[in-house]
Amino acid sequence: MTLYRAALSITHRITGTVWSVGLVFLVWLLVAAASGEDSFNGVQWFFGSFFGVIGLMALTAVAWFHTLAGIRHLYWDSGRGYDLPTTYMTGRAVLIGTAALTALTWLVMLISWI
Questions:
Q1: DSSP category for residue 83
Q2: Does the pLDDT of residue 3 top 70, yes or no?
Q3: DSSP per-residue letters across 13-56
Q4: Which of 7, 19, 49, 75 has its CA 20 to 30 A from that of 39?
């Protein structure tokens, strides 16, 4: 296995872990919503803060990377894509797709928010 493929594969596992930790924030939001207006306002304040927005942006990138790398792994599970040119092409597609889909997600969110 090439170092390039190994690095993206390891990153896929790391983003899976980060994505799982990110679900704690979803649980926090849901519990706060069920707990009342004051609790919910506190969570909304956090997510609306600079660090909250940066965290949500990072979590969006993590979700897209993990999804696209997962599709790449499924492609490998079919027994294809192990040759070096295809490995590089699909790796670049994951990285470019992550950047593009993260930006598109936030652009759509901001347009719908305004």
A1: S
A2: no
A3: HHHHHHHHHHHHHHHHHHHHHHH-HHHHHHHHHHHHSHHHHHHH
A4: 19
